[in-house]
Amino acid sequence: MDLAYIPSPSTGVLHLGPVPLRGYAFCIIIGVFVAVWYGNKRWLARGGKAGTVADIAVWAVPFGLIGGRLYHVITDYQLYFSEGEDWVDAFKIWEGGLGIWGAIAFGAVGAWIGCRRRGIPLPAYADAIAPGIALAQAIGRWGNWFNQELYGRPTDLPWALEISEGPNREAGLYHPTFLYESLWCVGVALLVVWADRRFRLGHGRAFALYVAAYCAGRGWIEYMRVDEAHHVLGLRLNVWTAIVVFLLAVTYIVVSARKRPGREEVVEPAALADIAKADAAKADAAETRAADAAGAAGDMPGSGAKPAGAKPAGAKPAGGKPAGGSGADVKPGPAEKR
């Protein structure tokens, strides 16, 4: 008798009237929002403008979804194009099936388009969004839990995953590889954040670290899975992909650190222009306030300020005679002599 295990949901979809609410889709959507939200915080900390990450995500996310689905369909074509299968199912993305390798590759193309439109460097954007992508993957993997897919070998561990009888699967307890990968992705996000703060990674190296760290974990997790997959030289295709991409990411980190050390000082030129305008407006406002304050001080009674044209006391008027004198010092004219 098994005393502990992780239950699977009885269904991966809830119906709100005629509208189906699918757990897989919810996990993907929540992951995207988390990635954009956290990426925006990191972008602002690097000196970028608010909203830039979301604007570029408008390009990156659709490209990523298309690329992820294409990779899955191409590498598992037998599920859709073999005898007895319906090729229309290749478009049913809500039933699961997104390849992270295709999602990242095509998503990068979409991000490149968005970056060019905003006039910012793609490597800087990739560095800002990298931990958010890892967190999005961690959330998205729970979509596999809703669909009861991508589990590992049978096990009797306390955290075994209960799988019910269904198409192409047998009831039993299996390794929850979706959970292993979700936790690994959280660790990757924390690693990238720490390394970025510690070593001030720039020019795409934070993103490359995310890719390398993810591939390292995906390799051993993929090796545990039992779902149908193509094998090359005794290893699953995705294991080979993880190895190749890991080596490319590490090579990029090494070469980039030698050719372009340090971090970009400016990630979004438009943000600097806005800051300069804001500083100029503040300076003008400060000068205006100072001038107004000086004018107000001059108009105050008892301030010691003299109105324009005022003459000091005792000043002689034209002709040399003091104005308003007592007459004691005035000499009589000739007609006044006695």
TrEMBL record:
Chain residue ranges for the region called Disordered: 291-338
Pathway: Protein modification; lipoprotein biosynthesis (diacylglyceryl transfer)
Cellular component per GO, a single term: plasma membrane
UniProt keywords, alphabetically: Cell membrane, Glycosyltransferase, Lipoprotein, Membrane, Transferase, Transmembrane, Transmembrane helix
Top-level EC class: transferase
Predominant localisation class: membrane
Membrane topology value: Multi-pass membrane protein
Feature: compositional bias, Low complexity: 291-320
Record-linked Pfam families: LGT (PF01790)
Amino acids binding a 1,2-diacyl-sn-glycero-3-phospho-(1'-sn-glycerol): R141
Enzyme Commission identifier(s): 2.5.1.145
InterPro entries membership: Lgt
GO molecular function: phosphatidylglycerol-prolipoprotein diacylglyceryl transferase activity
UniProt keyword annotation of GTP-binding present: no
Bilayer-crossing regions: 23-40, 52-74, 94-115, 122-140, 177-195, 207-225, 237-255
UniProt-annotated location(s): Cell membrane
Biological processes, Gene Ontology terms: lipoprotein biosynthetic process
Annotated function: Catalyzes the transfer of the diacylglyceryl group from phosphatidylglycerol to the sulfhydryl group of the N-terminal cysteine of a prolipoprotein, the first step in the formation of mature lipoproteins.
Family (UniProt): Belongs to the Lgt family.
The protein, known as: Phosphatidylglycerol--prolipoprotein diacylglyceryl transferase
Organism name: Streptomyces ficellus
